[in-house]
Design brief:
Layout lengths: L6 H10 L7 H11 L3 H20 L4 H6 L4 H13 L4 H26 L8 H13 L15 H22 L4 H12 L6 H14 L1 H21 L4 H6 L3 H13 L5 H26 L8 H14 L19 H15 L15 E5 L14 E5 L24 E3 L4 E7 L18 E8 L2 E8 L11 E2 L4 E4 L11 E6 L13 E8 L2 E8 L6 E3 L5 H7 L6 E6 L4 E8 L5 E5 L5 E6 L3 E8 L5 H8 L2 E3 L7 E6 L1 H4 L6 H6 L6 E8 L12 E11 L2 E13 L2 E8 L4 E10 L2
Antiparallel strand pairs: 1-2, 1-12, 2-9, 3-8, 4-5, 4-7, 5-6, 6-9, 10-11, 10-12, 13-14, 13-24, 14-15, 15-16, 16-17, 17-18, 19-20, 20-21, 21-22, 22-23, 23-24
Helix pairs in contact: 1-2, 1-3, 2-3, 2-10, 3-5, 3-6, 5-6, 5-7, 6-7, 9-10, 10-11, 11-13, 11-14, 13-14, 13-15, 14-15
Length: about 725
């Protein structure tokens, strides 16, 4: 039985996935909804179970099975067939084999559409359901369903008089005609053609997602208004039960596959009328074959729209597709916004400063001299002394300049694409406009990301075209070649490999910056002109303490002497995380040479791991004395779900809740590797800028790693002592 412990999760998720969710409780609500008709509930359950168990026993990956991706189409087929035909041995056999057939059709669609990064949605259900409806015309032993007239009897058997009274009350409640059609459309997703089922589904949808619930109403009423404008009788929606196409399309494109925001909501004003036209026209076609159009318009519209977005050159209208699907519009929104705030836009490959030490930006983006038009996104770097001068003596010779002949580093891993290494140095004040870029190296970091470093010293470039370089490799020395009247390093990012290509706006990662007498350490930044910048050298103790290695075990004791073990693992997408054995909680993190960032947490928020996730949310391995790091949390990671209920409704347009992270480094600690380092910080929760609550924390770190961790909140005081760190 332990081998099938995944089955309840997969079962409930299969129901919830009909609304793009993996919320267990929402799945349970929808499962109960199907039992408004007892046989529909049973046959739907058998169909999805057949698909899930088949997937498991043929060896499919457990993760998509557990998430319900391979079950929800089989569920819809089972429910649909049970609605149309009388129960019996033949129908039972047909439903079991159709559940298995739908699984394999789902795998086929996944293989075809997955190549283009597209979901298969409910296409497997539609195809199998149509095939079986056509084939059933030859199945004389199958009788059409006549149970609808006995619904009250079936409900009485399930819940007695109370359930019957509730069912009749909802169906007889004087809802406005449009709202009644909305509930009928919601129920029709599971072939339940009554208001009671629709209200039940709406409550479940509201519990699962406030944004999803809002979008369902918005999508439906946009269609309602469009029907009125066209003069099409709105009863068409009620009688044909195709209104759920507008509901599912709105949820899918307004907040599930696209980050919910003003743009995604506004786009529905165009998309939903298109779905309405598709629904009306396709129904006319399928009437010729006596087949229901069902969810085909939704599938066609969503897949076409998502595929079309893949041809964009930019995101000027603000429709951002999901890069990490969390099966909740709210979670997708909060985590996307937080990721953009923390790591910047369009920076999947970290690019670092290409030099040692502290340099000053003497010309930044949209600079005063040469950084204009197609070359506006670039930096010029020089070294200044305490008096702000870039040279010693009179500055008459290149060697007088502090940055001249300094080492230039590879800004990231890549392959050398272009090299110019034979341009003579300029005398001070002179320019070589014929060979504008001077000695230059271009490095390919990905198919559409290249770095260019120019005005290098003649003959100093070490690698040749085709050579591999890694971050921090010495690749050249700085000179004064090309359009350079005095030594400086020109650095730009571009999307093509040619020297002098059009620049792109791409940030630099892990930058320490002093600007306007304020020190800051930024995960990503476009530092401005006048800023003093550097890449901090990692402190050995900090790097040793927080550089978690896959396969490692972290063992420590709490103040009550309870021993706790964390394992460092990778998931199927190669995301690294800490897993707490006692609680089953997971804290995902991103680690590079200079920084640790925690990116996500799932599990028990009373666990020690959750507090560690909050406290170690952003750790720099290098620091200046007294440095303070600041960051922000996704609000759903620090606030209780009840506290963000109203925020969820407003989140696509306005966010008034905030979770802030602050970490302070010691005033005197840099360079003292033998002295323990104390890191202190706090987590602050606020609403409309007003502080609501805070937690404080402290790390004590020495050369052996994390010696102790202390976390204090209003209701608890956690103290832990590290015992050891074991490698696998």
């Amino acid at each position: 039985m332990k081998k099938l412990e995944w089955f309840p999760h997969a079962l409930f998720n299969s129901y919830a996935q009909v609304f793009f969710s993996n919320n267990k409780w929402f799945g349970i609500i929808l499962l109960l909804l199907t039992f408004v008709d007892f046989y529909v509930g049973i046959y739907g359950l058998l169909s999805v179970s057949a698909a899930l168990l088949t997937g498991y026993f043929i060896g499919l990956s457990e993760y998509p099975i557990r998430q319900g991706y391979y079950g929800f189409n089989s569920l819809l087929v089972g429910v649909g067939l049970a609605i149309y035909f009388q129960p019996g041995p033949l129908l039972l056999f047909l439903i079991l084999i159709s559940g298995v057939l739908t699984l394999f059709i789902s795998l086929a669609f996944e293989g075809i559409l997955g190549k283009y990064g597209l979901p298969f949605l409910s296409l497997p259900f539609i195809l199998v359901f149509w095939l079986l409806r056509l084939a059933s015309r030859q199945f004389e032993a199958l009788g059409l369903n006549e149970r609808g007239i006995y619904v009250l009897n079936e409900l009485y058997l399930l819940g007695g008089n109370q359930l019957v009274s509730l069912y009749e009350w909802w169906n007889q409640f004087p809802f406005p005609s449009s709202l009644k059609a909305y509930f009928l459309s919601l129920g029709a997703i599971f072939f339940q053609q009554n208001v009671f089922a629709g209200v039940f589904a709406a409550i479940g949808l509201l519990i699962y997602s406030r944004i999803g619930f809002t979008l369902s109403l918005l999508g439906f009423y946009i269609a309602y208004a469009f029907y009125l404008v066209l003069g099409v009788p709105f009863t068409e929606i009620s009688y044909s039960f195709i209104g759920f196409n507008y509901i599912l399309t709105a949820i899918a494109l307004g907040g599930f596959f696209i980050i919910p925001n003003k743009s995604s909501f506004a786009s529905l004003l165009i998309i939903i009328p298109i779905v309405a036209v598709l629904s009306i026209s396709l129904q006319e076609i399928f009437n010729l074959f006596y087949l229901p159009v069902h969810s085909f318009p939704f599938n066609l519209a969503v897949l076409t729209f998502l595929y079309g977005l893949k041809f964009r050159m930019d995101n000027r209208i603000g429709l951002s597709t999901i890069f990490w699907q969390q099966n909740s519009p709210e979670k997708n929104l909060y985590n996307h916004r937080n990721f953009m705030d923390r790591f910047g836009k369009d920076s999947p490959i970290p690019i670092y400063l290409p030099f040692f030490g502290e340099w000053t930006i003497t010309q930044g983006h949209k600079g005063s001299y040469t950084h204009k038009d197609e070359w506006k996104h670039a930096w010029d770097f020089e070294i200044k002394d305490e008096e702000g001068k870039t040279f010693k003596d009179e500055g008459d010779y290149p060697a007088d300049y502090y940055c001249f002949d300094k080492n230039v580093l590879a800004p990231a891993y890549g392959t050398v694409e272009s090299v110019v290494n034979d341009v003579d140095e300029n005398p001070i004040g002179k320019r070589n406009l014929e060979k504008n870029w001077g000695n230059t190296i271009v490095i390919r970091h990905s198919d559409f990301l290249f770095s260019q470093l120019s005005h290098l010293r003649k003959g100093s470039i070490v690698p040749q075209i085709g050579d591999k370089v890694k971050k921090g490799d010495i690749i050249a020395r700085l000179g004064n070649s090309g359009n350079s009247p005095y030594p400086h390093l020109h650095f730009q990012l571009q999307s093509t490999p040619h020297i002098g290509s059009k620049t792109i706006d791409y940030p630099i990662s892990d930058v320490w910056m002093r600007y306007q007498d304020k020190d800051s350490l930024l995960s990503v930044a476009n530092p401005p002109v006048g800023a003093l910048v550097s890449s901090l050298n990692p402190h050995s103790a900090l790097k040793n303490a927080f550089s978690f290695v896959t396969g490692e075990q972290l063992i420590f004791k709490s103040k009550d002497e309870q021993e706790i073990t964390w394992n460092v693992k990778k998931d199927y997408s190669l995301n690294r995380y800490l897993e707490c054995e006692p609680s089953g909680s997971k804290a995902y993190f991103k680690l590079d040479e200079a920084m640790l960032h925690f990116t996500h947490f799932e599990g028990n928020r009373r666990s020690t791991l959750y507090r560690f996730y909050l406290a170690a949310y952003k750790i720099s391995f290098g620091f200046t004395n007294g440095l303070e790091l600041r960051d922000s949390f996704p609000v759903n990671m620090v606030f209780h779900p009840r506290k963000i209920f109203l925020q969820d409704f407003l989140a696509p347009f306005y966010r008034y809740l905030r979770g802030e992270y602050r970490l302070r480094y010691p005033e005197k600690g840099k360079g003292l590797s033998l002295k323990p380092v104390e890191l202190k910080g706090e987590v602050i929760k606020s609403s409309f800028g007003r502080k609501l609550d805070s937690y404080s924390f402290e790390f004590l770190i020495d050369n052996t790693g994390i010696r102790s961790f202390h976390f204090q909140s209003r209701n608890s005081n956690l103290e832990t002592t590290w015992i050891e760190s074991l490698s696998a």
